[in-house]
Amino acid sequence: QEQLVESGGGLVQPGGSLRLSCAASGFTFDRSAIGWFRQAPGKEREGVSYISMREGSTYYSDSVKGRFTISRDNAENTVYLQMDSLKPEDTAVYYCAADRISTLLAAMKGVISDRSLKVWGHGTLVTVSS
Predict the structure, then answer these.
(1) Nearest-angstrom CA–CA distance, 98 and 22
(2) Between 64 and which of 25, 68, 82, 115 could a Cys-Cys bridge form, CB atoms 3.0 to 4.6 Å apart?
(3) For 50-68, how does the pLDDT look when each residue is reduced to its tens digit (9 = 90+)?
(4) Strand 46-52 relative to strand 119-120: parallel, antiparallel, unpaired?
(5) Using CB atoms within 10 A of its CB, is residue 51 exposed (0-12), middle (13-18) or buried (19+)?
(6) What is the residue-wise DSSP string for 13-32?
C-alpha cells in the first residue's frame, strides 16, 4: 500500500528555517514525483514544489522560489523541503503528494485539480510567527 508521512513542522520566527520530511512507502518510483502543497487558513490549497524521484528535476512556485529547496534521498525513500527565510505568509498545513510527473506538474500549476492526485499524506503544520 502506497503511503506518505510528513514530519518536521512547528513554530518558527520570521526569517527562520525549517526542514520538512515526507517518507514514502509502497511506491515504485520509475515515473513518479513527490510534491509539496500547502493550505493556509481560509485559503485554497496551492502547489509549492515537486521533485521527480528518478531524474531529480524540480519545480518551485514563484512564492517560494529562492527560499525553499526540495531534495530526495532515494535510499530512504524520503523527500525533504528545506524552508529558509520564512515569512508569516508561509504559515499553512503542508502536505506531500505523489503521482506521475506530468500529473503532479499539472496539479502544481492549477491545470487540474490536486484532488486527482494519487496519494496524499496527512499534513504537518508550519507556523511562522514572532
Answers:
(1) 10
(2) 68
(3) 999 989 999 999 999 999 9
(4) unpaired
(5) buried
(6) -TT--EEEEEEEES---TTE
Q: Are 18 and 86 in contact (CB under 8 A)?
A: yes
- Cα→Cα distances 17→21, 29, 42, 88, 96, Å: 13, 29, 24, 12, 18
pLDDT of residue 26: 85
Q: Over 90: is that where the pLDDT of 36 sits?
A: yes
pLDDT at 112: 93
As a whole number of angstroms, the distance between CA 83 and CA 116 comes to: 26
CA-to-CA dists, residue 69 to 18, 42, 83, 121, angstroms: 11, 26, 7, 19
C-alpha cell at 33: 514525483
H/E segment holding residue 78: strand 78-83
pLDDT of residue 31: 72
Return the SS3 of 54.
Answer: coil
